[in-house]
Design a protein that fits this description.
29% of the residues lie in helices and 18% in strands. It has 139 residues and is an alpha/beta fold. Strands 5-2-1-6 form a four-stranded parallel sheet. A two-stranded antiparallel sheet has the order 3-4. Helix 1 crosses helix 4. The protein is globular.
Length: 139
């Protein structure tokens, strides 16, 4: 059985999202956050890595998803459904669409909140994690 690793043994990866497709990039990021790319993977142990995403607001989507894709939230009150299309989400919260795509691909259990904390989303091409010496992630 693999053991839980601490924060010092986790690797850091950096990926530039400019021009990349949302879903394909999110699957690769979710794989690294879960640790499925490692030999010591176990579904009940969180041994994933840190991922820094640069230019998170400049991802692309295929087809008519820019105007047709909706992000829905509900307040649990009558008539409390809110729908935000992708093009408005890109203007209001540019990194939120990337975060929601990755969160949907992580396991729905107690480990998900710890995994999503290791996802660092940046709007520009600069980040302030140089001390961790991130390696480029090939997509």
């Amino acid at each position: 059985m693999p053991k839980q690793i601490d924060g010092n043994d986790r690797k850091w990866f950096v990926v530039d999202a400019e021009g990349k497709t949302l879903g394909r990039l999110a699957t690769t990021i979710a794989t690294h956050l879960k640790g499925k790319n490692k030999v010591n993977y176990a579904p009940h142990v969180d041994n994933g890595d840190f991922v820094i995403v640069l230019n998170a607001g400049k991802i692309v989507v295929s087809g008519n998803k820019e105007s047709d894709k909706l992000y829905r939230t509900h307040s649990r009150f009558m008539g409390g459904l809110k729908e935000v299309p992708l093009d408005r989400m890109r203007v209001k919260k540019p990194t939120e669409m990337m975060r929601l795509a990755v969160v949907g691909m992580l396991p729905k259990n107690k480990l998900r909140s710890e995994m999503i904390k290791r996802l660092k989303l940046e709007l520009g091409a600069e980040h302030h994690y140089e001390a961790q010496k991130p390696e480029p992630l090939s997509i």
